[in-house]
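Dear H.,

Thanks for agreeing to be a second pair of eyes. The structure we're designing against is below in token form, covering all 421 positions.
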């Protein structure tokens, strides 16, 4: 036996097992589908990608210029862990003026995107065995973040006939002594639903009865809202400031997805805990992005004309898609009041056998069929906790959406609803 063979045979086998915590987490389907569609496009397949929640607009010039100037002026060093005082002060002003909630800079932590802010909040307040209440359809990451904190996600279904809004009675009946966090997202990803103030007040009354229950209010889409719908910050409701963690950011309204900038606001003890977690993980957000964030908040109330022009375009796209899909057989739609997603019920097409493809059994197989047959990338509803629907992002030009609708319509034309609607 050679020396190399002898050495190899005596080698100790490496333990390649992973943490149970990581094994309990599912990968993000939106990320996976977006990556797959991008790979197809790079291979020359003319795929229309409507999976990612990313505005197609460029970052407004005044914001981009602030970032460029930061680089030119040498503003490229580490920032304070919680964010620059300049940006946190601007965020406090924004929350007071636009949302009616008062904070001081030490009650704000700026992170590398709202996603990081949410995860840190869940890790900060949840103990193993705690329950995190999540209305479905939900953003794909909420349940997985709960699992990363060794907490149990408790999923509460909503109905398309109720515009996917949480029933307060269902909430109250599912609260236990283990309930620690309720996650609300308004306007919603994936449904575009907006919680009316009266409904939030009913939810707040229920929350108030349970001393351990906190609320994480994800308000990342607050400025992308269509009149007459209006946005209400949960922390502004009577008695809710003390138990609400408000998350927001710059990605959606200001078309700053790649800048990676978000923040959380709340009572100091919770925010200090988030700050501690961040100090041992990523440290402060990009100094350059933070300068751009200050410029974004300087655009005026709700982003001023720059943001309102983008919202106007989103509304035009929404109206086109709602009208177009509403004319298809066997389709159910709840018209979104905010964000830039349609969550459409295509379940009447399930159960159909397609020659050369197989049976369309659920949202995932229908999405695969539409990608294969129509070359349009969408996200199956089961990723959001509702297998009857498919999410379509209309953060794309109207021309692109018109082309995608024609492709989807053509792909479905040979299919007939398997059950009456």
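And this is the sequence the design step returned. I haven't edited it by hand at all.
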């Amino acid at each position: 036996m050679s020396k190399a063979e002898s050495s190899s045979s005596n080698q100790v086998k490496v333990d390649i097992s992973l943490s149970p915590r990581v094994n309990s987490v599912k990968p993000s389907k939106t990320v996976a589908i977006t990556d797959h569609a991008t790979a197809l496009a790079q291979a020359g397949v003319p795929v229309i990608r409507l999976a990612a929640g990313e505005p197609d607009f460029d970052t407004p010039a005044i914001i981009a210029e602030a970032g460029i100037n930061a680089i030119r002026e040498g503003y490229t060093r580490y920032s304070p862990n919680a964010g620059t005082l300049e940006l946190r002060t601007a965020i406090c002003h924004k929350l007071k003026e636009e949302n009616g909630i008062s904070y001081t800079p030490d009650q704000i932590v700026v992170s590398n995107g709202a996603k990081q802010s949410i995860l840190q909040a869940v890790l900060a307040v949840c103990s193993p065995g705690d329950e995190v209440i999540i209305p479905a359809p939900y953003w794909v990451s909420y349940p997985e973040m709960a699992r990363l904190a060794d907490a149990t996600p408790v999923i509460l279904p909503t109905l398309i006939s109720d515009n996917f809004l949480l029933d307060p009675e269902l909430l109250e009946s599912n609260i236990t002594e283990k309930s620690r966090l309720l996650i609300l997202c308004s306007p919603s990803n994936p449904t575009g639903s907006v919680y009316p103030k009266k409904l939030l007040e009913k939810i707040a009354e229920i929350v108030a009865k349970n001393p351990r229950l906190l609320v994480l209010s994800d308000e990342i889409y607050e400025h992308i809202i269509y009149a007459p719908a209006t946005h209400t910050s949960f922390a502004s409701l009577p008695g809710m400031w003390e138990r609400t963690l408000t998350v927001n950011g710059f990605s959606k309204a200001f078309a700053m997805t790649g800048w990676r900038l978000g923040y959380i606001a709340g009572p100091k003890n919770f925010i200090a805990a988030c700050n501690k977690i961040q100090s041992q993980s990523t440290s402060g957000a990009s100094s350059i992005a933070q300068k751009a964030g200050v410029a974004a908040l300087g655009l005026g109330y709700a982003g001023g004309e720059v943001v309102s022009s983008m919202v106007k375009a989103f509304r035009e796209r929404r109206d086109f898609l709602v009208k177009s899909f509403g004319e298809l057989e066997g389709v159910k739609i709840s018209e979104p009041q905010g964000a830039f997603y349609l969550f459409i019920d295509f379940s009447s097409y399930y159960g159909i056998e397609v020659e050369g493809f197989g049976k369309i059994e659920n949202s995932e197989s229908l999405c695969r069929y539409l990608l294969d047959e129509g070359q349009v990338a969408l996200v199956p509803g089961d990723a959001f906790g509702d297998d009857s629907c498919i999410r379509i992002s209309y953060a794309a030009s109207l021309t692109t959406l018109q082309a995608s609708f024609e492709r989807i319509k053509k792909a479905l034309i040979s299919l007939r609803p398997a059950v009456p609607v």
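Two observations from my side: The CA atoms of residues 69 and 282 lie 24 Å apart. The longest strand covers residues 179-185.

Warmly,
E.
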